[in-house]
Amino acid sequence: MGKELKIRDVNKSFDVNGEKVKVLSDIGLDIEEGEFVVIVGHSGCGKSTLLKIIAGLEMNDTGTVQIDGKEVKGPGIDRGMIFQEHRLFPWMSIEKNVQLGLNGKSKKEKENISDQYLSLVKLSEFKKAYPGQISGGMSQRAAIARALATQPEVLLLDEPFGALDALTKIELQEELLKIKKRCKNTMIMVTHDIEEAVFLADRIVVMSSRPGTIKDIIKVELGHTRDRGGSDFAKYKKKIYNYFFEDKIVAPEYNI
Fold this sequence. Notes:
- By secondary structure, this protein is of the alpha/beta class.
- The protein has two domains: about 5-80 and about 150-250, P-loop containing nucleotide triphosphate hydrolases (Rossmann fold), CATH 3.40.50.300; about 90-150.
- The chain is built from seven helices and ten strands.
- The protein has helices at about 45-55, 95-100, 105-120, 135-150, 165-185, 195-200, 230-245, and strands at about 5-15, 20-30, 35-40, 60-65, 70, 80, 155-160, 185-190, 205, 215-220.
- The chain has a six-stranded mixed sheet, sandwiched between helices.
- Mean pLDDT is about 90; it is low at about 250-255.
């Protein structure tokens, strides 16, 4: 099962060439156990920074992030993260890459777990292959399997399909929903792709330009089977896209 997150008054700044640049301003958000939340916003609004704060890879300047009442002060095994680049080690087989986080388990246990999650992402036949021998989409599947193998209750996804071609992206989006239904993790994704957000999310968090604030939180009431070509689907896309026109951000094909 997933976990509940509470984000309260989170602020974050970075020092850039001796100048303090504020990236996040007064972020407050509750995420329910087992929910799929997608964060959208244009480049530089701080959405990936927020994801890294939840992961414990960045520290917030002020405010708190709590998971089931416990404050996040660093990385933890209750959270897994998937990046835009698969970050597989090229000298290891796919099987060995998936087993990386399974410290303290026997060889047999590691094999059983990696087999389970490689089967889940449909890579069983390629477990002895190396990253350089498979496609980008398959490598991203392996990265998903690696993240799931440690059985995290919160799965964080930082534009995981951004570098893939359109058809592979659609295929992996559909697979991700199947995984979500089976594993029941709490999932938080960052994306520039509005269509992807509407297809996947229970709720969509729309962020402003830097410093990032939450402009709106939109509940997507389209059911579990979503028609990308449907009129209701298009209404959600238009509503979110309009926020970026308000910021005078124009991006082709909703890729913002």
